[in-house]
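Figure 2 data, in text form.
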Amino acid sequence: MIPLFVDCTGRRIVIFGGGAVAARKAAYFAPGARVLVVSRSFVHKIETLPVAKKGVDVAEASDARLGTLIGNAFLVIGALSDPAQNNRIGRLCKKKGILFNNADGKAGDVVLPAISRGENFTLAISTAGSSPAISRYIREFLEQELPELDAMIILQQRLRGELKRTEPDQLKRTAVLHKVLDDSLVWKLLKKDPEKAWENVAVRYLHG
């Protein structure tokens, strides 16, 4: 698989299942996509999300009925408790050429990673479904160990702009940027006061 970041704003996402797993998947896409959740019942979390809901017993529905629900979806997710039904939905998606993610059953062609987001970054972590716990562990570890990552990105952006203005040699600019990233003092200062961190970097790396 090739990792990609895809803009799903306005795209149609269909999720089969109404439990906790389906709720997590729906919350993942709800901010921007047009999400339809299909199930005979829904947990409370789904009721609170800005998604459309369709009450259908998937096990009793015909392939034609499911095909109509899938429609022209950009992505379909099988999040039912029955892997056989998820696999059935996956086969229908394959016939239609629609991307499919399977929460339980035969792997689809899309894996949803563990996500860590800041104002200036998005980190996606995946073990291709072999160990979701590891993906979550890595995400939590990074969030705990690098809480100043957003501040460092802002500082690096500012530093890069100054270096482009004052240093014509690209290799030297790159070397300075990496030195700042490896500078434990800068990370410590970012924790307390990002502006002081910048002043320290400016003195030591721009005017030193």
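Caption note: The CA atoms of residues 94 and 133 lie 28 Å apart.
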